[in-house]
Amino acid sequence: MTFNLLPRKSLSDVLAGRIANAITSGTFKPLSQLPSERELCEQFGVGRSTLREALKVLQENELITGRQGVGWFVNELNASNLANARELSSMDLSLIAEASSTTPRDESAGPKRLPVSPEKPLLIPNLKTDRQGTFELISWWERTKVEKAKVLVVGAGALGNEVTKNLALMGVGNIFILDFDTIEMANLSRSVLYRESDTGRRKAEIAAARAQGQPQAGEDGGHDFEQLSLF
Question: What would the DSSP string read from start to end of 66-132?
Answer without folding.
Answer: EETTTEEEEPPP-HHHHHHHHHHHTT-HHHHHHHHHHS---TTSSPPPPPPPPPPPP----TTT-TT
